[in-house]
Structure to design on (218 residues):
């Protein structure tokens, strides 16, 4: 028997109701992910191991990664999962940047040493320069993983590359932005998808003192 995701959620909601469990969050997540006209997403990878992207590829609870990328999100740039590469991929990122209003996801630390020359995303674009450029047009920035959130292992002493977390890097560059930290090594896919879907619902996640969503960090 074939069961759709929506049918499964309704069945799960009914079972949870009998057990006295809270289901509104799960249903709202499904509604948000099923919506149309969602903002575009630009995912930049800095100084790190790509572990958080690999973690996201294992998403199964709210949605699978293929359904998420094909049917739910307007992913404009993610060098690990997108089909295009080189100038074509960089062009997609730049086009989305000019339009603005996107969700900017940063994975990995931002090296500030030697004017950012320790990490290049594509020709002529260091991670430092990319953060300066893409942060300005973003509606919100998600720092995914411990390296992006606080520097992580990349910022361990000695730190010749000047690796920094996103918020620290923005401060050093004289910029301000709305940053949400989703630490973890790697960050769990449900924390990433859940936070994105909350934003798609038009809501801002409640954050703790470390700017982490309290729904996942208590």
């Amino acid at each position: 028997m074939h069961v759709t995701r929506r049918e499964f959620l309704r069945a799960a909601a009914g079972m949870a109701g009998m057990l006295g469990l809270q289901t509104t969050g799960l249903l709202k997540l499904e509604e948000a992910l099923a919506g149309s006209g969602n903002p575009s997403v630009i995912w930049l990878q800095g100084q790190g191991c790509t572990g958080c992207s690999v973690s996201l590829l294992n998403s199964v609870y709210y949605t699978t990664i293929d359904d998420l990328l094909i049917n739910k999100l307007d992913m404009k740039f993610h060098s690990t999962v997108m089909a295009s590469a080189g100038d074509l991929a960089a062009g997609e990122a730049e086009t989305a940047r000019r339009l603005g209003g996107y969700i900017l996801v940063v994975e990995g630390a931002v090296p500030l040493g030697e004017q950012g020359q320790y990490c290049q995303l594509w020709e002529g674009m260091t991670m430092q320069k990319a953060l300066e450029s893409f942060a300005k047009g973003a509606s919100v920035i998600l720092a995914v993983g411990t390296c992006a959130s606080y520097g992580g292992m990349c910022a361990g002493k000695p730190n010749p590359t000047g690796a920094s977390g996103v918020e620290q890097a923005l401060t050093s560059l004289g910029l301000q932005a709305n940053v949400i930290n989703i630490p973890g090594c790697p960050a769990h896919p449900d924390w990433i998808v859940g936070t994105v879907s909350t934003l798609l619902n038009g809501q801002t996640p409640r954050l703790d003192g470390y700017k982490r969503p309290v729904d996942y960090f208590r």
About this structure: The chain is about 40% helix and 15% strand. Residues 12-36 have pLDDT under 50 and may be disordered.
